[in-house]
Write a structure and sequence with these properties.
heterodimer, A: 169 residues, alpha+beta, 6 helices, 2 strands, disordered C terminus, B: 418 residues, 10-stranded mixed β-sheet, 3-stranded antiparallel β-sheet, disordered N terminus
């Protein structure tokens, strides 16, 4: 612990000395920053010791330890535009460096049917029978049926109330 | 990096963040691991004695009466669990991972030695000794309450080794440990427990869509007498990656109590952090491997853990593609990610854990159980030690004050000089 205190104090002194010797401006700002340094060091000390005892961040590193083989990789990299005079050194909203951070739109699906069957179905030619069916003329039987008079023996459905029998509102 | 062929178009996104796995409709295949043996005596094949135990740290079983030895069968060999991941379609599951259909933990067995009835609490143990004739009665086949897994990884680390490792771990964390914990710490009270997990293989395909930037120029512009600003120029690309991933033996908790990882109320993350285990070496379950150890019963079905497993698949897919986008030195912002699980294969397994627990009463009156746990196979140890917060605050304040003693005079000098 004593070593830690000395090293942090040494670091503060060393950085101050470096800045003073550089002769650059912003000395006043640096002085203000030095006022905040003890609180940062205190917070860092507390967090480090707490983590060492409680190990709250310990977890199964499944993404690194589970065997996985990547196959059939396809890439598309399409130039969009050139961007200039950006202030940040990294892309805005970068998330490729944290695989746990989900993208805005994420979908996980479990296949409903065998993959090969789906691929085979997509690959097959459109059915000729379907085309033929669409191309054929309307059936004669349908026209005949429409021409027939209504069957007298068709019972009238009694469970449907008639419109005029509805009680008026 | 290839030049554009045809930018990929991801399918309709789900604004909810993650689609629900369509569990009920996925085609299922059952891989039978039942033994067909009746519960009760698990005899030595040579002499018929039930005094069977594990031989040291090996996978062999030995008869305590005639010293006959035999070896359990590895599930990887007997059921080809490490093969054919790319051919998986729909869900395949071993018998031990079948849905739990019974809530009865107590099982009454009739002793074949003397005819008396012996009750086994299958939520804790899968063997019991007949109190009349002293023969050992075992659960020899799967039962519908989830207590019997497909495979088991027997302990490799002995109790003495576990005690030494736990003592070393806690010994290195004595200074800020709770005073009561230091006084009551007895590593010899460590218990060996078999924890229930599921292993899952996945045949998945992933598609990611986003934007990436490659820096072309970095320059600093002077904006005042003493100030300057650094600017970056970059080329922006639309990035799409589409690939298959064959995942082998991802491990997920199948106990509701252990899968609830919440650092504010429990230290289950400690047990979780002992993963992975060498599940490739698991042998077909035989209660003789358990000996005196207790076991925790599985109480989650495949449907209960599917969502978590699929989320892990997606994370693994994201991790697996990182090495392919390193050319984008300003990084990639993935906007769409899509994972399709074509097939999965599930098995249940008992893994060995040496567990030391300590219950701390928190300021709000709640109890927090701290675990120090040892992986029973390869011995890595992880733990949570209750903290003496007064001492920790005191040392933190001292460090802060000493740093201020150095930094503030320098700061004051700098302000005055500026």
């Amino acid at each position: 612990m004593g070593m830690g205190i000395l090293s942090s104090a040494d670091a503060v002194a060393a950085s101050a000395a470096v800045l003073a010797s550089s002769g650059e401006g912003g000395t006043a700002l640096f002085g203000l920053i030095l006022f905040a340094v003890p609180f940062v060091v205190g917070w860092f000390t507390y967090a480090t010791l707490y983590k060492r005892y409680r190990n709250q961040n310990a977890r199964y590193q499944f993404e690194h330890t589970t065997a996985a083989e990547r196959l059939k990789l396809q890439r598309w990299d399409t130039f969009v535009r050139e961007k200039t005079r950006m202030r940040n050194s990294t892309i805005d909203g970068r998330n490729d460096d944290d695989p746990h951070e989900r993208a805005h739109h994420a979908i996980v699906r479990e296949a409903m049917e065998p993959r090969n069957a789906q691929a085979a179905r997509e690959a097959q030619e459109p059915r000729i029978a379907q085309e033929a069916r669409l191309a054929q003329e309307a059936r004669e039987a349908q026209a005949t049926r429409q021409a027939e008079p209504e069957r007298a023996e068709q019972p009238e459905r009694s469970d449907q109330p008639r419109g005029e029998e509805h009680p008026s509102a | 990096m290839t030049q554009p062929h045809q930018p990929g178009v991801p399918s309709q996104p789900d604004a909810s963040g993650q689609g629900q796995p369509a569990a009920a409709s996925a085609p299922e295949t059952h891989i039978d691991t039942s033994t067909g043996r009746a519960h009760g005596h698990d005899d030595c094949p040579q002499c018929g004695s039930t005094e069977v135990s594990r031989k040291g740290n090996t996978l062999s079983l030995v008869c305590g009466f005639c010293r006959y030895e035999w070896v359990g069968s590895r599930l990887e060999d007997t059921h080809g669990l490490g093969e054919g991941i790319g051919a998986l379609e729909g869900r395949a599951f071993l018998t031990g991972a079948s849905d739990i259909t019974s809530g009865d933990d107590l099982l009454t067995l009739k002793c074949q030695g003397c005819g008396s009835e012996v009750v086994i609490d299958t939520s804790r143990a899968l063997e019991s000794r007949c109190h009349w004739c002293r023969s050992i009665l075992s659960i020899n086949d799967k039962i519908p309450n989830g207590a019997v897994p497909d495979g088991i990884l027997p302990f490799h680390i002995t109790k003495e080794e576990a005690i030494a490792r736990i003592g070393e771990f806690a010994g290195a964390r004595r200074f800020f440990a709770l005073k009561k914990f230091r006084a009551e710490f007895r590593p010899e009270n460590v218990l060996g427990v078999y924890m229930p997990y599921m292993t899952v293989d996945g045949n998945v395909s992933a598609r990611f869509h986003g934007e990436g930037e490659i820096q072309t120029r970095r320059y600093t512009v002077k904006t005042g007498e003493n100030t300057s600003t650094t600017y970056y120029d970059a080329n922006q690309f639309e990035v799409v990656r589409d690939f298959d991933l064959h995942i082998d033996d991802l491990i997920v908790e199948s106990s509701a109590g252990r899968s609830n990882i919440d650092n504010r109320s429990n230290t289950n993350n400690i047990i979780n952090s002992l993963l992975p285990y060498d599940v490739k070496n698991m042998v077909a379950f035989d209660s003789n491997y358990m000996g005196e150890m207790t076991a925790e019963k599985r109480d989650l079905n495949i449907d209960d853990v599917t969502r978590k497993a699929h989320a892990h698949f997606l994370t693994m897919a994201r991790e697996s593609i990182r090495d392919d986008i390193t050319a984008y030195d300003r990084g990639v912002r993935w906007t769409h990610e899509e994972l399709e699980v074509h097939g999965s294969r599930w098995a249940s397994v008992f893994v060995p854990v040496w567990l030391y627990s300590y219950a701390e009463r928190l300021d709000n009156g709640r109890m927090m159980v701290h675990y120090i746990a040892v992986n029973g196979r390869h011995g890595n140890v992880m733990g949570s030690v209750p903290i003496n917060k007064a001492r920790l605050f005191g040392v933190t304040a001292l460090v802060t004050a000493l740093t201020a003693l150095v930094a503030w005079p320098l700061g004051a000098a700098a302000v005055l000089a500026g």
